[in-house]
Write a structure and sequence with these properties.
2 domains; Beta-Lactamase; three-stranded antiparallel beta sheet; DNA binding; 9 strands; Arc Repressor Mutant, subunit A; 10 helices; alpha+beta; globular; six-stranded antiparallel beta sheet; HTH_MetabolicPath_Reg; 22% strand
Amino acid sequence: MGNAVPLAESGAAKAHRTVSRITTILELAASRRSGVRLSELATELDAPRSSLHGLVKGLVADGYLREQGGAYTIGPAISALLAAAPPTVAEAARAAMEELHRQFNETVMLASPVGSSLVYTDAIESTQPIRYSAPLRVRRPLHPTSSGKCLLAFATERFRENYLTGHLADAPRDDTIRHELDEVAQAGVAVNRGETLPDITGVGAPIFDKGRVVAAIALAGPTSRLGDVVTDIAEATKAAAHEVSERLAGR
């Protein structure tokens, strides 16, 4: 599985403004329990309310949004789409995540690629008073998160280069990141030592389905607790991701 190549055509894809606006509207509606208002959408998208009004009303008409009191939440059409889908990666990963959590009692996350970002779609938080709290359903950069390093490590060279040169200012002149990603591809596991948040260490491993990386399992917590056991955590996280990949292969 270590030589699998994901996101084969992602580097060639180009953003479309209308599509991007619609997907952002849906993501914002999904991320806020009380819903999102048109004025908030206009601020988030930096777009006139008049330009968004028709999109929002169209999504309501087709059942992808529900309007109540001027706020928009996810509509029933989304649930209908999900109900028709095959078993998800999250369903396949849950047992492995629970076991990883039981072993170390640190926060365990499932990360999925979303364009040139990642989103944590599931998490089991540590029960310890001081812990890492994972933001769910929010786009995060691929680098330097441990999950994102896994996704980049197994991406096509074109996708990786487009991401590095487009998102990291020093990437065109510095091969350090490229060498690290090559090492992640060889080891099948990535570590983030305080690169995203000071004093937080994260460990991630890729999940494969049909030869393509589709997600990553990550564990994160205070460096003061993870520092001495990071090797054990890396092996356990890699084993958990492999277990999920095997479950997906047997679907």
